[in-house]
Amino acid sequence: MTDPTPRPLQRDTFPAHRLMTEHPPVLHDPNKRIVFEVACPPGTVHEGEVGYSRWPTLPLPDAIALDGAAERVEVRESVYEYRPATGAEHAVQWHVNFADPRLFTAYGTGLFAQDEMQVAEHPALGALREALHARRWRVQTDANAAEHVDSHFSALPFCYQ
Questions:
Q1: Helices (H), 1-123
Q2: CB of 23 closer than 8 Å to CB of 127
Q3: Are the C-beta atoms of residues 161 and 50 closer than 8 Å to each other?
Q4: What is the pLDDT of residues 18-75, one digit of tens each?
Q5: Is the pLDDT score of 150 beyond 50?
Q6: At CA 81, angle to CA 110 and CA 49, rounded to 5?
Q7: Parallel, antiparallel, or unpaired for β 158-160 and 95-97?
């Protein structure tokens, strides 16, 4: 019998100060450098941790029970926020990234879409991409047959806490 519990393909937790000192963001765009200098002036102390995981896609169920579904969904007509999870003792806050198949790929360029906005708000995410590259970890959401056995895997979501 196989264990149905999904397991991450990659997972680690990075202290933000180590990310920023050992793998600083690489910014090619002059406007991004200005934003970074405003957000992280010399002497900035980076605190906390960045949790990273890369997960396989699981097959969709044959059916979904709709009873009570409305109570399990919360609609917010606002901007994407990063507030901590509330209401559950052991809740974990996840921010799933599907903006581009390559995680934070253009954060240092002149582009300014979802990934680039997230890195502007949280510069340690640019450093996270650099750290993942330094480890030679895949930072792309396409399937890699060498990483799994089942053929039903397709897109591989990234999550960071």
A1: 16-22, 30-39, 69-72, 114-121
A2: yes
A3: yes
A4: 999 999 999 999 999 999 999 999 999 999 999 888 887 777 778 878 887 777 677 7
A5: no
A6: 80
A7: antiparallel
pLDDT, tens digit (0-9, with 9 covering 90-100), for 116-145: 998 999 999 999 999 999 999 988 765 543
- Read off the pLDDT of each residue in 4-13 and give the average, rounded to a whole number: 85
* Both structure tokens of 91: 């809740």
Q: What are phi and psi of 51, to 5 degrees?
A: -90, 135
> What HEC string does 105-160 produce?
CCCCCCCCCHHHHHHHHCCHHHHHHHHHHHCCCCCECCCCHHHCCCCCCCCCCEEE
